[in-house]
Amino acid sequence: MANPEPQKVLVTGTAGFIGFHLAVRLINQGYAVVGLDNVNDYYDTALKFGRLKETGIEEGEVSYNTLVTSKRYANYRFIKLNLEDKSNIDKLFAAEKFDLVCNLAAQPGVRYSLENPDVYVQSNIVGFLNILEGCRHYAVKHLVYASSSSVYGLNETMPFSTEDNVDHPISLYAASKKSNELMAHTYSHLFNLPTTGLRFFVVYGPWGRPDMALFSFTESIIQGKAIKVFNNGEMLRDFTYVDDIVEGIVRVLENPAQGEKDWNGKKPNPGVSKAPYKIYNIGNSKPIKLLDFITTVEEKLGAEVEKIMLPIQPGDVLSTFADTSGLEKDFNYKPNTLLKDGVSSFVDWYKDFYKI
Question: Is the separation of the CB atoms in 213 and 296 below 8 Å?
Fold first, then answer.
């Protein structure tokens, strides 16, 4: 009896941090994976091409709207493409007939959205619409997409729950992610497209982004530079190791969202619906004070760093704390990487990548 064809998955954002790790996991599990990224210069493209190289895609092979087959993995191909390129996104969906889609590509960054709002509308809203249209017209079985803890905005009830209203974002980045959730619900309702949104809390680990805390702290400590610590370090963050995040994504991806039969429109729970639509928090559910996080990095590197204490920045929230009971109940999901172990893995990777 012939082996069944492997399921084909589109993962967007595979030159990015989480997308790269997810692609490798799915490749190793035997899926046929197509990775997509526009490899923009929001941060150092050498890091992005470094990730691509790990998946067998060489920088010199990458050109716009051209599928490249990995030299390392027979079941992996990559295409450089903008999400907002509607015509070519449609052609990709038509040609590939994806079973599953995980949309992790987006313009990230809260502070950057204050300076360059147009980029967020094009990538995160127009681009996401093109992904939804592809899923709708080409019978995708499940769309999983990245939302963000930033949607909680001015909410103060802790831990953050998907059952709470999230109508008070404090950055355009957060507003774009809330828009994704609303758009996904519309497509789930109108076209019976199963969609699941994952609100990521602070993700860290090897191959992380230079604009995130762990990367910048590590770089500064190694170079003997002072670091900026906002709100005097009195911020709480739900730091989650990237392998734990990927584990959660894979469990969700393999189980398409279903509608809730007892959903009540008079008392609507915003995290679920009668439509095949779900929202989950995905995080560690153990918030850590920023100063304690810095101490963990200092201990790994064996050096203290000068701290410049500054007020909280526009668009930043004081605390992130995930109620992950939904993922625990539905998928038996529980992150298990200790902070010191995760920080240690990142620092080891950083030293190796930058030849320190």
Answer: no
Cis-peptide, bond into residue 335, ω within 30° of zero: no
For residue 11, report the phi and psi dihedrals to the nearest 5 degrees.
Answer: -115, 115
Terminus-to-terminus CA distance in the chain, angstroms?
A: 52
**270, amino acid identity:** P
Contact 167, 152 (CB under 8 A): no
DSSP 225: -
Which DSSP string do the residues of 239-273 spell out, in sequence order?
-EEHHHHHHHHHHHHTS-----TT--TTS--TT--
Query: What span, in angstroms and rounded, lies between the C-alpha atoms of 94 and 51?
Result: 27
Provide φ and ψ at 69, rounded to 5°: -90, 135
Query: Of the candidates 231, 238, 125, which has an alpha carbon nearest to the alpha carbon of residue 172?
Result: 125
- CA-based torsion, 207, 212, 213, 219: positive or negative: positive
**Which of the residues are catalytic?**
173
Q: How far are the Cα atoms of 258, 264, 299 from residue 304, in angstroms, in the given order?
A: 50, 54, 8
1 SS3 class: coil
pLDDT tens, the chain, 356 aa long: 556 789 999 999 999 999 999 999 999 999 999 999 999 998 899 999 999 999 999 999 999 999 999 999 999 999 999 999 999 999 999 999 999 999 999 876 666 667 778 888 888 999 999 999 999 999 999 999 999 999 999 898 889 999 999 999 988 889 999 999 999 999 999 999 999 999 999 899 999 999 888 999 999 999 999 988 888 778 888 899 999 999 999 999 999 999 999 999 999 999 999 999 999 999 988 888 889 999 999 999 999 888 899 888 776 767 778 899 999 999 999 998 999 999 999 999 999 999 98
Amino acid 229 reads V
Task: Tell me if the pTM is above 0.90.
Answer: yes
The amino acid at residue 274 is: K
Asked if 261 and 272 count as a contact pair (C-beta separation under 8 A), the reply is no
